[in-house]
Every structure is written in structure tokens, then in C-alpha cells.
Amino acid sequence: MTSTGLDGSFDVTVSSTAVENGKPAPDIFLYTAERLHVEPAQCVVLEDSRAGVTAAKAAGMYAVQSRAASTALPPLPEADLVLERLSDFPLSLFD
Fold first, then answer.
1. Is 94 inside a domain boundary?
2. What pLDDT, in 10s, does the model give residues 68-78?
3. Which distant-in-sequence residues (6+ apart) come within 8 Å of 16 by Cβ?
4. Which one of 9, 35, 38, 40 counts the least CB within 10 Å of its CB?
5. Is 32 within a domain?
6. Domain containing 81 — which CATH number?
7. pLDDT single digits (tens) 18-69
8. Residue 35 domain boundaries
9. CA-CA distance, 34 to 59, in Å (whole number)?
10. How many CB atoms lie within 10 A of CB 64?
11. Number of structural domains found in the chain
């Protein structure tokens, strides 16, 4: 995260090099949940790719598709929630 200037902003950072299989396999999300000591069902994943949404669902996590990126895909039916703008994220998910 050094290149982004976000060092120290997160409790855990995980790279795809930490797991054997990349997305759409759920490995990276399951590994991250394990490192955070959180059950997968308690995780929310924000993704902008089909492979990411597929991986989140395969991990048993709540998948939020962000369409805010310039390469936005059409709404994915497998996503639990689709956001047109990140500012639309319902913070009530965390209540």
C-alpha cells in the first residue's frame, strides 16, 4: 500500500500473492477474513468486477457491486447490492 499512501490505514492488507488461487476463487476473501478473525458471513465485499463478486459470493460474503468505476459493468444479478455511486452505500448495513 506504500504506492497509494494508505500505509497504516487498514488493520490488514492482503495481496493476491498471499493465496494460491486468484478471483473468481474465494481464497483471497477467506484468507482476509481469517486474518481479521471474522466469520465470512459477517463480511461485506465491495467489488467492481464480475470475478470479484463471484469470489465474494463463493466465500459466503455479502457482495456489493460498485458501478462507479469508468469500466462499470451492467448490474450483476449475483450481487447482493448494486451501487451506482459509492456515496449511496447504506451505512445501515453495519447496524
1. no
2. 776 778 999 99
3. 22, 23, 28
4. 9
5. yes
6. 3.40.50.1000
7. 999 999 999 999 999 999 999 999 999 999 999 999 999 999 999 999 987 7
8. 2-88
9. 12
10. 21
11. 1
The pLDDT of residue 94 is 75
Smallest CA-to-CA distance from 46 within 86, 95, 12, 76 is with 86
Q: Given this model, what pLDDT does residue 18 score?
A: 93
Per-residue pLDDT at 1: 53
Provide φ and ψ at 46, rounded to 5°. -100, 120
C-alpha cell at 35: 486474518
Tell me the C-alpha distance between 60 and 40, whole Å: 6
Contacts of 47 (CB under 8 A, 6+ apart): 53, 55, 56, 63, 64, 65, 66, 79
In the numeric block, which cell numbers belong to residue 17? 500473492
